[in-house]
């Protein structure tokens, strides 16, 4: 009981008036710090939670970032609203809205995985959706690429030379094949 009466005594003699922004309620609290982390001690019955903003009599807005309840009071660690906003804006996230982004690293990843199966499926889908008269030949090229992927052997020289006329007529497909082969080389 000694702590309770000590806290209440200190609160009544040295407490500072704070306004809780969400309720507009004026309450007393004690300013303090622990390991260079400032906090306000409030009675347990004060309705304040993490994320709330309290304002002191000087108009400074303080964002509650952590609460540690104790026997008869709670320590509410805070940051000035300015520092809080600055820190959160510096580390803010952003969204990229795109229809398709394949084989791309966005962010700070150290390792990347090349998904050759996705490229194979995409080529098959593109072939089936195309109006090309060479669909059978294009699917043979995809089968050949699948065999190359699965064999883990170096790509033999001139392996696609027999399909040069087909690939010339379907230039949209040639880019996909080139991309696949580059990724295959990088993954070996």
Q: Which blocks of ≥5 consecutive residues have pLDDT under 50?
A: none
Q: Return the average pLDDT rounded to an integer.
A: 83
Strands side by side in the biggest sheet: 1-2-3-6-5-4
Largest sheet: 6 strands, antiparallel, barrel
Question: Percent range for helical residues?
Answer: 40-55%
Going by helix content, strand content and strand pairing, the class is alpha+beta
The tally of helices reads 6
Strand fraction:
15-25%
Number of strands: 6
Q: Any idea what the radius of gyration is?
A: 33 Å
Query: Rough shape?
Result: rod-shaped
What is the rounded distance between the termini? Answer: 71 Å
Order of helices and strands: HEEEEEEHHHHH
Report on the structure:
- The protein is of the alpha+beta class.
- It is 41% helix and 22% strand.
- The protein has a six-stranded antiparallel barrel.
- A hairpin with a 5-residue loop joins strand 1 and strand 2.
- The chain is rod-shaped and about 95 Å long.
